[in-house]
Structures are given as structure tokens and as C-alpha cells.
Design goal:
Layout (H helix, E strand, L loop, with lengths): L3 H15 L2 E2 L2 E4 L13 E8 L2 E6 L3 E6 L5 E5 L13 E6 L4 E5 L3 E6 L4 H4 L13 H8 L7 H6 L9 H10 L15 H16 L36 E4 L6 E4 L15
Antiparallel strand pairs: 1-3, 2-7, 3-4, 4-5, 5-9, 6-8, 7-8, 10-11
Helix pairs in contact: 3-6, 5-6
GO molecular function: class I DNA-(apurinic or apyrimidinic site) endonuclease activity; damaged DNA binding; oxidized pyrimidine nucleobase lesion DNA N-glycosylase activity; zinc ion binding
Enzyme class: lyase
Keywords: DNA damage, DNA repair, DNA-binding, Endonuclease, Glycosidase, Hydrolase, Lyase, Metal-binding, Multifunctional enzyme, Nuclease, Zinc, Zinc-finger
Length: 270
């Protein structure tokens, strides 16, 4: 599942392969961009911003993409087989003489003026992996609505940019509270610890796609505390981990009812 660390690493790989090179192929397969051709322009850089990718192209253009739940960008060398999915899932192709970047299942793909980037990312809060990371501001934003459930506050990219469903569940577990506990009911100092832990985890995982939140262990097979571990015993207390699907959303919550205090998904005490 693409989260801020995945976007950071994707951007770095695309930038390393394509930045500074002339585009020899351009194919944007969404209706509003079907006639756009940026072949012959230099790809300048690829920059991550939270969960957004900003691919800047000569002439003041930015190709803005967002992976949402299952989008991806894949890199291929000449002659290499494309294996990111069937052709009908391809939304973008950007090629140079050495590499071809192929965007699969991209739910957001638009070409804007580079000067207009604030219109698509200006609403974001401090970027957990960005040069402007501001932990104090992130804490202020997370705590701005004391009645809001912790999980919602962490997922809101206007508070801090980069957290997705995996980190939401893992951070709540690490704080020993459920994702439905109102932010205002967190013990003193916990919001600061949560934000610091989020920054630490994304930094630790930004160089790899094989994400783990259990960073210190003699059991390398243990990667995540609760996410995707429904009906498996909690590593901390042995209680079976539970899963709750959010109606109308492509999100789920995993938590341990044994050692995470606070309300359950129905709002009642767990």
C-alpha cells in the first residue's frame, strides 16, 4: 500500500533514472491528456510531497500523480518485459534513451503549470519526509480538534503528510490506544511521541519497499505489530488481533483489544 515512504522511494528512483534526460517517448492515457505530447522536452526532476508525485518537465510543466490504493510507477530498461499489469491499466509512459517509466492504475494524473503546484499540494501539512518537516506544527494540527478520532487525525494529510492506513494502525498500537480514541483523550505527551514515532518510522523505511515497524527484534519474520494480522496473537499480550472494515471506504483498521485502550469502532468502550 503506497504511503509516504513508498512515494519518497518511487520519486528517488524515477529521478535518478530520468532527471536531466530528453524524453523520447510520451504517452498519457487519460482522456483529457490524450493529445498531449511532451516528447523532446527534458525531464527536470521528480519530487515527492506527502503521497503526491510531482514530475517537472522543461517548459514550466508538472505531471502530477497520486497512487491512492494500488497505483504504481515502474521503471524498465530497453528490452525489459513490462510486468506491472495488463496494458489497459497503463495510464502514463515517459521514456528516455535509457529508461521507460510506466504508470499503472493511476487514479490521479494531470498536467499543470509548475507555478500552479500549490493548487494540488498547498493544502498539505508538514511532510514527514520533506525538507520542511516541522514536528511542532504537526502536533498542533493533529490536536486542533480534540473530539476527532486519532486514526482520522493521523490520516488527514492536512495535519501531516505521508501517513496511510498501515502507519495509522501501527502508531495507535505503539501508543497503546485504539484508532477511535478522541485525540483530546490521549495522555499528556503522547501526541508528541506519536508524531516523533511517525517521523522515525517513515525515515527508517524510505530506502526500501519492504516496510517494517518492528525495528528492533531478533525475529526478522516479525515486521508489523497488527496490520494484516487478523486473528493472530498480539506480540505484546497474546490477544487475537481484530480487523474492522470501514463501510464505504477502502480502509481497514487492525488493533489489539487486549492492550489498546479506548473505544472500539462502534464508539463504545473496547
Amino acid at each position: 500500500m503506497p504511503e509516504g515512504d513508498t512515494i519518497w522511494l518511487t520519486a528517488r528512483r524515477l529521478h535518478t533514472a530520468l532527471a536531466g534526460k530528453l524524453l523520447t517517448r510520451s504517452d498519457l492515457r487519460v482522456p483529457r491528456l490524450a493529445t498531449v505530447d511532451v516528447t523532446g522536452r527534458t525531464l527536470l526532476d521528480v519530487t515527492p510531497r506527502g503521497k503526491h508525485l510531482l514530475t517537472r518537465i522543461e517548459g514550466g510543466l508538472t505531471l502530477h500523480s497520486h497512487l491512492r490504493m494500488d497505483g504504481s510507477w515502474r521503471l524498465y530498461t530497453p528490452g525489459e518485459r513490462w510486468n506491472g499489469g495488463p496494458d489497459h491499466q497503463i495510464r502514463a509512459i515517459l521514456g528516455t534513451d535509457t529508461h521507460t517509466a510506466v504508470g499503472y492504475r493511476l487514479p490521479v494524473l494531470e498536467l499543470i503549470r509548475t507555478s500552479e503546484e500549490p493548487s494540488v499540494v498547498g493544502h498539505l501539512g508538514p511532510d514527514l519526509l520533506g525538507p520542511d518537516w516541522d514536528a511542532e506544527e504537526a502536533v498542533r494540527r493533529v490536536c486542533a480538534d480534540p473530539a476527532r478520532p486519532l486514526g482520522e487525525a493521523l490520516l488527514d494529510q492536512r495535519n501531516l503528510a505521508g501517513i496511510g492506513n498501515v502507519y495509522k494502525c501501527e502508531l495507535a498500537f505503539m501508543a497503546r490506544v485504539t484508532p477511535w480514541l478522541p485525540v483530546g483523550e490521549l495522555p499528556p505527551g503522547v501526541p508528541e511521541k506519536l508524531v516523533a514515532a511517525a517521523h522515525r518510522l517513515l525515515e527508517a523505511n524510505k530506502e526500501r519497499f519492504d516496510r517494517r515497524t518492528i525495528l528492533t527484534t531478533d525475529r526478522p519474520d516479525r515486521k508489523l505489530y497488527v496490520y494484516s494480522r487478523k486473528n493472530h496473537p498480539c506480540y505484546r499480550c497474546g490477544t487475537l488481533v481484530r480487523r474492522q472494515d470501514e463501510v464505504g471506504r477502502d480502509r481497514v483498521s487492525y488493533w489489539c483489544p487486549g492492550c489498546q485502550s479506548g473505544p472500539g469502532p462502534d464508539g463504545r468502550p473496547g
